[in-house]
Amino acid sequence: MNNDFLIREMKNYAELNNVPIMTEGGIDYLMKYIRKNNIKNILEIGTAIGYSAIMMCSVAEDICVTTIERDEKRYLEAIKNVKKANMEDRIDLIYNDALEVTFDKKFDLIFIDAAKAQNRNLFERFEKNLNDDGTIITDNMNFHGLVHKDLESIESRNLRQLVRKVREYKSFLISNSKFTTEFFDIGDGIAISKRV
Ligand code: SAH
Ligand code: MG
User: Fold this and answer.
1) CA-to-CA distance for 28 and 22, rounded, in angstroms?
2) Distance 36 CA to ligand 1 centre (A)
3) Whole-model pTM?
């Protein structure tokens, strides 16, 4: 890809402004998954500044991403980055809370990378928009290692609540009879769910 400069710029911006973009290992895996499974239409929840959307699109010329972001500053930043990447015709940026958005169309991949406490809601809201042989990938399943820690050792009450939520989501995926899910210790932990 000849967007090397832009990618570096986005990573710097993310670092400076505390934007939690995908880690190298995570994005790498995601891109390989997209290539290997010939994925063409992607729905992303959580655009941030457009880093992962641009990376996913760069896998092949005919990939399209629809992506949702509720934070205005990040959304505006994403618009700029998508323009710089010349991907305006392939990346559809939606400025809204994903829990307010509905679609009729279907996607090959739904990538959930938004508020951790909303994972289950988001999964259940958009599963009808997944093609029969499609995949739902969820990021941040390890929550920086916190998911495997004793709850009592986590001091912040808010953080404990979030960790509980991520664990609940994990149980939801494991016990979901419509989907089968694999968990990978890649990046910040990802879950790959496919219809049974
Ligand atoms: N996928 C991005 C990183 C996303 S960070 C990348 O790797 O480049 C998570 C983003 O999700 C944040 O910017 C946050 O504002 C957004 N978000 C969280 N909950 C959301 C919701 N319900 N609807 C839309 N955006 C949401
Ligand atoms: Mg993430």
Assistant:
1) 9
2) 25
3) 0.96
